[in-house]
Amino acid sequence: MKIAARAVLLGVVGLLAVGGARASQLSSDAKAAIPKDVQQLIVVDYRAMQGSSAAMNLKARIMPPELTRLETALRNSGMKVDRDADTLAFAAFRTGQQVHTVGIAQGQFNTASILGTFAKNKTKPLVLRNYNIYPMGAAGMSVVFLNQTTMIFGDASAVRAGLDSRDGITENMLQNGDMMNEMNVVDSRAIWSLLDQKGTQTMMRSVLGEAAALTDYDSVKNRMRSSRYTLDFANGIHFNMAVVMSDTMTAATAAALMKGVVLMKQVQGSTMEKTAMTETQVDSSAGTLQVSYASSEGQFSDLLNSPLFQQVVK
User: Measuring CA to CA, how many Å separate 288 from each of 96, 124, 255?
Assistant: First the structure.
């Protein structure tokens, strides 16, 4: 499970406690507000999570302090986050050598009430073209409403980059053919994530742990093209990850490395942890490394309390 858990955590660490709808698909307006050079995109259907005690337990354990502050800031702004928001997305994108993260929420927002709260608190917006960008207190975050169904939030520079891409001043994700093609494979799932080549290399180094120091890893690292993973909470916990390689031989080599890590971990840890590793499946097909894990909610909840999980989230 360490393999699956590490990859899941890379995505779920971006979750924010907002209520959700039945689909985790992004509108064209939301996609346009994501800059083209996306390193990782994470999209969440929170209703699926809200109905799973294991999912909520996972979120409570790993949500970083800055996102907790953002949640508080959103609530203080007058947003009924448990009721109004449907889909939440986080996009890590590159500008030069820097990586920024912009958040996007979709739903039915009572913008009049929220803007009224800003006015009552004498919160003055930064005006950019036809947008009003509002600071959200001590959280160091800003928020702007594109319309009544879509809002962008994050630090000021990330929000500005999102607005520039939406207005066509810079290129946006709709012009990223690789990402758009990969999105069609996963965007019906409860939680899904896409990573570009650099994002995939970073994730795989974390997933493989000590095995990443091996010579075999160096031989496959530069042949990683992209990756995607999904997490569903219907009828238990289901995690699936696919890493697209340049050729079938590289995918087979990566699968062999991954299987080696699984075997190594099967001789360590508690009985429950060994069982979890047994339920982690690794394979390769048509140039793609595939990893999957499934368990009951009870098993997954137990795993969250294990030393193995604590090691993973350090």
Answer: 29, 50, 9
Query: DSSP strand E in the chain: where?
Result: 38-45, 85-95, 98-107, 126-128, 131-135, 142-145, 150-154, 191-195, 224-232, 237-245, 280-285, 288-295
Residue 130's closest CA among 118, 145, 115? 145
Taking residue 138's Cβ as centre, other Cβ atoms within 10 Å add up to 9
Letter for the amino acid at 131?
Y
For residue 101, give the nearest of 162, 51, 20, 169 by alpha carbon.
162
Q: pLDDT per position in the chain (314 positions), as tens?
A: 444 444 444 444 443 333 333 446 888 899 999 999 999 898 887 666 666 666 666 666 655 555 566 566 666 666 666 677 778 888 889 887 888 888 888 888 888 888 888 888 888 999 999 999 988 766 678 889 998 889 898 888 999 999 999 999 999 999 999 889 889 888 878 788 899 998 898 888 877 776 667 666 777 888 999 999 887 777 777 888 899 999 999 899 888 888 887 777 777 766 776 777 788 889 999 999 998 888 887 777 666 666 555 544 44
pTM of the model: 0.81
C-alpha angle 35/228/10, rounded to 5°? Answer: 80
User: Nearest 5°: CA angle at 94, between 145 and 290?
Assistant: 100
Polymer length of the chain: 314
Rounded Cα distance between 144 and 131, Å, is 7
**3-state SS, residue 234:** coil
Tokens 């896409």, residue located: 194
Which one-letter amino acid corresponds to residue 207? V
Q: Is 246 left (phi over 0), alpha (psi -120 to 50) or beta?
A: alpha
Type of residue at 130 = N
